Structures are given as structure tokens and as C-alpha cells.
Amino acid sequence: EPQSAPSLVFLIRKRPLEAIAESERCVAHLNILNLVILGVGRMLRSGVYIVAGAVAKYIAGPATIISFLVAALFSMLSGLCYAEFGAWVPRSGSVYLYSYVTMGQLYAFVIGWNRILPLVIGTASLARASSYVFDSLIGNHISQALQETFSLHLPYSLATYADFFALGLVLLMTGLLLLGARESILVTKISIGINILVLIFIIITGFVKGDLHNWKLTEQDYKLNTSGSRDIYGFAPFGFEGILQGASTCFYCFFGVTAVATKGGEAINPRRSIPWSIMITIFICFLAYSGVSAALTLMVPYHQIQPHDPLPQAILYSWWLPARYFVTIGTLCALISRLQSAMFRMPPLIYMMAKDGLLFRILTRIHVRTGTRVVAIMSAGNLTGVMALLFKLTDLVDLVSVGTLLINSLVAFSVLVLRYQPDQNLSKNENTEEEIEMPDLDEHPLDSEPEARNSNVLKSLWFPISTIPTRKSGQIVYGFLLMIILSLIVVQWSSQGFSAGSGYTPVAVLLLLLIIGVTVIIWRQPQNPIPLYFKVPALPVLPLVSIFVNIYLMMQITSGTWAIFGIWNCAAKPIFTKKVQQHNQQEKDNVNLAPEKQLLVPISSLSTELAT
């Protein structure tokens, strides 16, 4: 027990916010329009040029539009949870910072580690997409040469050839960062403008040159162009399962909602501007993504789409040759500029986690002359380069989706925990109330009987005595972990549990009823009355629905993607274990200090907390 106590303290320790001088405090200056522009610039990912084609050909067909709709609707739920999560910390920052301040060190490490993954993989996917588009522009000479020279005869989760052009792009951007390059607001604005112009041009071209018959393909149309046959045709050739699997992949395109949700400290009237900005941003991006998907599937039958370069090839298929070069060059410019912007966001997170002691301290080294985070930049660049070199674009997109869905689930769970936990300022009053009430319960002889105790427990669950959260009511929310496990079981059995004549149907129905019962019990518990500029409505239903849907969509991802995701998280275990061991050693060294030196540690930490 003496050895495990320091480890437990280390895991649940929270990071106090550093005091900010009045001169350094952010002034509220962002209105709804500013926040929407910021969110669209971050969320309107250039990867849609590739994702729409891959999802349409292999996963959902023309029903890719519905996949984007499903992803957008549940991204809004996650966005609302992000907005409240940011409201608990009165400062602009990141999800990693918010989780460290509110939930503790272990929780922050899990979110930070899985936040690095989407950033790295998303940047690698941009590099790989840029390589595909440039290769198409020059006649596919790069891919042909690389396939002949560096062909990879490895498992299906890896690419067919090593893409050294994508690796070169990543290393070039890494070198620019090491030399001290800064993100240019002008370049970002030009990139967003080019992106929007190209997307509008593609949408207009698709509706002018497209053929509605491509949404109503028959068996004869399919056999004329392919050697196989399908059981389902028309608008949704892969059925409802294809739509949901497509939605899990399309979540990649809505990665970036935190850009708006974490700006509460800089927003004017954040109670109104933050949630409205999130919903408007997601709606605008959905219109862009669905419009591109509709145009693509109208111009080309879904089974003839070129997944690596869909939009320029679709323009060429519609016999409009000059427009193909405009779309290709515009797409390439948008992808490379987005790649440059994405490279700037990885090193700060790695540096912050290392500075907090959750990653290796060597990652905090800064170059004396340029002032750049040298080791953090090189680590992020090398990891991104390896991913861009070896992995297929579709697998990279799925990895981003898995990491994003996991973080969305953790944020929604954090909102539940925080709303039902007792406030630190009220803990003494709650303890006093519990100590006063306990003797009253012991005075009744019936309370000593098991049946009476059970009835009192059930009564306290449905009719809590206190109107403010207590430690007991806070512990009840953690019972929602059971719901997560049950939801996973329901997902595994859903394909057979609700089919006719299946023996799993009663079990699935009982599990769903139990989930509903857990939800009602959580709803009956008192909530924290702390005033926040935004609170998720219909608590706990919306966060629970968000978690359930996120888990369901995660289970639609392929097993190969899950294997890579599991390897990534297994790699985190020795890193965090070593940090726990270092903390325990520091605690032992502190015990061996002289008494006068031991007193300096709590006094200094107390003064820091008082200053904060």
C-alpha cells in the first residue's frame, strides 16, 4: 500500500491553472462570424478530395451523402459536449489542457496520446493525397516507377508501394519548421479561398454535367462495366451497413470542432456564440462535403470512380478537359497549404505533454538560435513521414476517425462526470450533512436488516436526499462504464440480435432496457449548480447518445485499422509506466530529505495554489 499510494496520487493529480497577469489576459473579440470562419478554415479539410471517392466506390456508393449527414449530426452532439467541457476551464486552450485541469493526469495522458494520433495521421493523409494528385497531373509516372522499384508485398493494411514523394513532402515541411518558419495568416486565407473556389466549381460542374441515372444503376449497368455482380443496386448499393461504415470514415472530415469549442475565453457572449458557431460550421462543411459527393457520383457511376484521384478524373470523364487541369492544380495547392498548416499543430502538443512530465523530457529541447522546439518537431515529422511512406490513404483516414471518435467519447463522458461531481467548495458542507444524517439512520432498528438497507439504497437512487452533488452521487455516474461495456455487446450482437428467429433478441432487449434504467438513474442525481457560460441540454441523454453512437461507429472500422490503433496505444503503456516509476522514486527521495527540506515542498505548492 505505501508503494501504490504515490502511484494513485500521480494518476489522479490535476494541473492547477497558472495565474495570468491582467495585461496578458485575452480580450473577448471573436463574434459568431469570426468563430465560423475559424471553424470552417480548420474543418474544411482538403482530404475530402480523396475521402469522397474512396467512400463512394468501396463503402456507400451514392449514399455517401447520407453518410456525411449522419457524421455531421453526431459531430454536432460531440461539438456541444466540447463546448461545455471548455466552459469548465475559464481559458482558451486545448482538450488536453482541459482534461488535465478537470479530470486528472491519467485522463489527460490518454486524451493527449490519442490526440497526437489524429494529428499525425491526418497530416500523413494530406501528404499521401498530395502525392496522388501530383502523380495524376504528370501522367502517373511517379507511382509506376515506385511500384517497379519499391513494391511492398506486405499485409493489406500497408500501401502497394513506398511513397517516397509523400515522405519528401513531409520532410520538406519539417525542415521549414526547424528553420523557424511561422504559420502565415495570409497563406491560410489564400488556402481557404482556393479550397472553397475549387469545391464550388466541382459542385456546379457535377450538377451541370452529371446524369441522374448514375443514382439509379441497374444490374445490367453494373455488368456492362465490371466482371462481377451485386445483390443491391440503386442509390444505396451497399445497404444500411455501408452507410454507417461510410459515416465512421466521414468523421475524418469533421475533425476540427475543437478550434471553435476551445475559444470560450476569446468569444463575445460565449453562451450564445460558441454553440451556434459549432452548429453553423458543421452545417456549412456538410453542405460542401455532400455537394462534392453528389457531384462526383452524378458525373461518374460509383463503381468507375478512381479512388486516388476522383475529382479530376470525374471532370475528365464528363469530357471537359480544360477544367480537369484547373481542378487538379487547385486541389494540389489546397492540399499542400493544408499540409503546411497541419505540421504546425503537432509539435506544440508534444512539447506541452513533455513539459508536463507525461512524455520524455528530451522533447522539450529548444534550439538556441531559432527558438524552435527541435526534438518535438523532428519526432512529429519522422513519425508522420513513416506513416505517409508505408500506409494506404484509406487506412490513414480510418485511423483518424477512430482516434477522433474515441476522444469525442471521452469528452462526453467527462461532461457527465463533471456535472454530477461535488464542487470542492461545497465538500465540507456535504460531509457535514452526511455525518448528521447517519446517526438518524442508525436509530431505526429496521435499517439494520438487509431488506431495509436495500430499499433505502434503491430509494436514494430514485429520490436523492441532497439537492447538490455528493460523493455518492458522483460515484453513481461512474457506473456508466457498465453502459459502455453493454453498448459494445449490443453492437456486436446487433447484426444477429434483431434478426428474425435469432435467440439473441431477448438478451439484446434486456441489455437495452438495462441501459435505459442506468440513464434514468443518472438523470435523477443532483447536478453541480456551478454557473457555466454553456451547458449541454437534455443531460444525461445527449452525452449518452453521443458516446453510444461514437462507439457504434468505431466498431464499423476494419480490423486492420483496429490492429494499428491497438499497437499505438500499447506503445503508450511503457512510457506512462516509466513516468509513474519516476514519480515513485521522487516520492521516496523526498521522504529521505531532511525535515526542514521536506517542509519546503508542501509550503511552495500551497503558495502556488493560493496564487492561482
UniProtKB/TrEMBL annotation:
Topology in the lipid bilayer: Multi-pass membrane protein
Limits of the Cationic amino acid transporter C-terminal domain: 534-575
Membrane-spanning residues: 58-83, 95-113, 158-179, 186-208, 243-262, 274-302, 314-336, 374-393, 399-418, 476-495, 501-523, 532-553
Cellular component GO terms held in the UniProt record: plasma membrane
Principal location class: membrane
InterPro entries: AA/rel_permease1 (IPR002293), CAT_C (IPR029485)
Top-level lineage group: Eukaryota
Keyword Nuclease: no
Region called Disordered, residue ranges: 428-449
Molecular-function GO term, any one: amino acid transmembrane transporter activity
Sorted UniProt keywords: Amino-acid transport, Membrane, Transmembrane, Transmembrane helix, Transport
Pfam families: AA_permease_2 (PF13520), AA_permease_C (PF13906)
Cellular localization per UniProt: Membrane
Entry protein name: Cationic amino acid transporter 3-like
Organism field: Bos indicus x Bos taurus
